[in-house]
Each structure stands twice: as structure tokens, then as C-alpha cells.
From TrEMBL:
Name of this chain's protein: AraC-like DNA-binding protein
Residue ranges of the TM segments: none
Domain HTH araC/xylS-type positions: 189-292
This protein's UniProt keywords: DNA-binding, Transcription, Transcription regulation
PROSITE patterns associated with the record: HTH_ARAC_FAMILY_2
Keyword match NADP: no
Native source organism of the sequence: Nonomuraea angiospora
Amino acid sequence: MQHFPPYYLEIVKPDPRGARYQLLHKGKIALHTASYGAEIRVGTSESFNFYAIMMPLQGSGGVMLNGRDVTAPISLIGPKQKIDMRWSIDHEVLMMQVPLGAMEEALEAYLGDPPKEGLRFDPGVDAAGALGHALTMLASTGMLPFAATKLAEHHFEQFLLHTLLSSQPHNHSDALRESAAPWTPAALRRAGRYCEDHAGEPIHLADIAAAARVSIRTLQLGFREHLQTTPMAYLRSVRLAHAHADLLRIADTGSRTTVTEVALRWGFTHLGRFAALYRQTYGRLPSSTRQGRQ
């Protein structure tokens, strides 16, 4: 979880039920719900290095950023913004915290180059919009079973990042729309190179589209037209080729690395499917290749 800078807290009226806190998710992005257990006024006198999206789950309150009221039901607080919040005695708030570095990395992947100026979001989030629906879903779920593995956690966080960047207006929104250019051979090369360079990482369809600098829909149509496949099927073939090369190397060197270790290294978590796909592609089982049998 990101650390808050020094802040002031004024307790207007205490609540006998006391404070409540629940951590929903902790990774690159943190999600939690909290209540101070009182009617409060809280704020900071200096800025912080993360983005915070705050959605009241119960009670009422208000948020001021740099002296201006946020009139929308959900508030988005960014770096270099000083906050002054007021919450009723029965309040409970869902907060999503995104590190500055993670947000800048996602934006750069969309733009293809480092942004020339810092990312500044509109502070008011529409509860009926894509981000508002995502936060409502998280609040109603309570626990997030799809964040149980590193791969699922990565996809979950990428979903939140891309939803935030694509749906909430900010000072780079026009540039993002321009970056969704028509399909070109250069876009195909960028997508292929990204798959090769990141095959061992838990990447998502949106990651490939951002690297290619096209929209997800354009990416899918481009792969279908030029390669007669899908982006994720192409990524799977790249991973399978890497696994095949590893198994050949193990057979040559006598390494004790197992087929399971090789499969997991390249993102194949279902070993039966990996074996079937490998046999379909190379004509024999991965265990046969590992043992050096023709």
C-alpha cells in the first residue's frame, strides 16, 4: 500500500462502533475499505506520489482538491493535489491506490513514448461510467478470488489501469485517441517484438495493443487479416517455441529441469493442455523431447 504524507485529522463527533478497515487487494494496486469511526475532517498539507480513487459506500461527505469542491460522487486524487475531506459519522469509503510509476508506465505503453507532461485526471468520476461500474463491482464482491494467482492478479490490475486510462478524462486523452491508429506493418512488427520480448511475463491483450500503438479491436482485425490467427494465439505459439527450445537444451545438457518447470516458465499452467498443444505442434510429447528421444 502507498504511504500517505503527514495529514491532519479533526474528530467532529465520535462513533461508538469504532473504526473499521478491510484490505481487499494488495499488489501494485491496493484496494481497501475504511471508516474512521467518527464524523471527521481530514486532509493533507503536502502532495503524495500516487493516485487515489475514493468512492463512498455509505454515509455522506465531501472532497476538496486544491481548494475546489469535487461535485461527482467518486473522487480521483492525483499527485501534487492537496486534499480536504469531510465524512459523516456513519461513513465507509472504498479506496483504490495506484502508484505514480505504474500509471506512468501504462500511459507510456499507450503513447509509445514517455509523456511530455505529467498525467492529470479530471477529479470527478461518473458513477455510471466504466470506472464507476468497476468500483461498484469490487465493492459488492468484497473478496477478489481472481487475484489469487500472480497471473490473475496481473490481469486484474491491468483491467483497472486500462479502464481508468481509457474511460476517465485526462490531459492525454486526445493523444490516446490519436495513438489508436490504423493497422500497419509497423504495428505488426511492434506487436510481434513485444510478444517475443515479454513471452515469459503475464501479459494481456491490452498490453500487446498498447505496444503496437493500436486499439484492441484494430489489433484483433490486423492479426486475423495478416496472420490468420488471434493475438493471444500468436503469443501462445511464441511461448510454445520458447518451451520447445528449452526442452531441446535440457536434452543436450542433461539438466534436471522438469517439463512442469518449463511449462510454468512460459505461462502454461494447465499441463495436460500444454502437452496436447506441444504434441500437435511438434509431433511428440514434451517429455520425449526432454529425454532426447526422436
